Amino acid sequence: MNMMTESNEGFSKSDRKHRNQRLLMIQAAKKLFERKDYDEVSMEDIADETAVSKQTLYNYFSSKETIYFGIGIEDFSGLLERSNRTIHSESTGRSQVLKLCEDFFDGLREFPLNAEIGRRFTVTNNQMNGIANITLQKRTKKRHKTSEKKRSLENVLADYLEQIRNFESIWITAISNGFKDGTITSKLSAEQLFQYASLIIWGIIDQMQLKRIPLERVNLNDVKIKQVTLQVIERLLEK
Question: Among residues 2, 235, 225, which one has the least CA distance to residue 113?
Fold first, then answer.
């Protein structure tokens, strides 16, 4: 989940230059957010980290929030790329789902900032009455690349939500593959199985952070917990 990629295909030279500079700023800001809590970081701090003036930073981003969620969007791109490779492999649907679960678990543990961004997205979107959902619904079905220089918070939240839905679509495909090849026999729908698996992984990740010391005391490390987590989800695929 730490892989930042952004295609420049279909953009003018000016737009490509702007997007590349924007990506460099996001990468620098990510290092800052990995060291400090969200509330401890200001736009001035980000400007210093990215070695640009505060005004230059505002020329690219409308707020600290748009930078923060921009990090999540870029990292999601890497996860989606790897997940796509998984569902196009020759392995069974069951194996594809378990590989997606493993990658998701590892990503959240290895890069906790992504988990924090996901939580803040949920809180922010709820506080703004589901603005990401509303904005995404308003977008036309036929998508075009935009040369918008500085995206609003509403559009950035919608971009993040779109990545979440793309991720969900990949999982649904893997689960559907399992139904087709007979390796998944659950009576739950593909959508329900995805939500259950997601709840299990997110819940365990959250508890691992809260109970770090008690878990260490009884010698429960990431490897052991992940193994049991995958076993629980595997059983779910059979019910």
Answer: 2
On whether residue 8 sits in a domain, the answer given is: no
Q: How far, in Å, CA of 111 to CA of 1, rounded?
A: 7
In tens digits, what is the pLDDT along the chain, a chain of 239 residues? 544 444 445 556 667 788 888 999 999 999 999 999 999 999 999 999 989 999 999 999 999 999 999 999 998 888 899 999 999 999 999 999 999 999 999 999 988 999 999 999 999 999 999 999 999 988 755 454 554 567 899 999 999 999 999 999 999 999 999 999 999 999 999 999 999 999 999 999 999 989 999 999 999 999 999 999 999 999 999 97
Instruction: Look up residue 210 and give its amino acid.
Output: L
Residue 3 to residues 38, 55, 199: CA-CA distances in angstroms?
Answer: 21, 28, 24
Per the structure, the count of domains in the chain is 1
* Number of alpha carbons in the 13 Å side-chain half-sphere of residue 236: 23
Residue 179 tokens, joined: 């139904």
Question: Is 107 contained in some domain?
Answer: yes
Full-model pTM: 0.85
Instruction: Residue 27: give the domain boundaries.
Output: 13-236
Q: What is the CATH number of the domain that holds 173?
A: 1.10.357.10
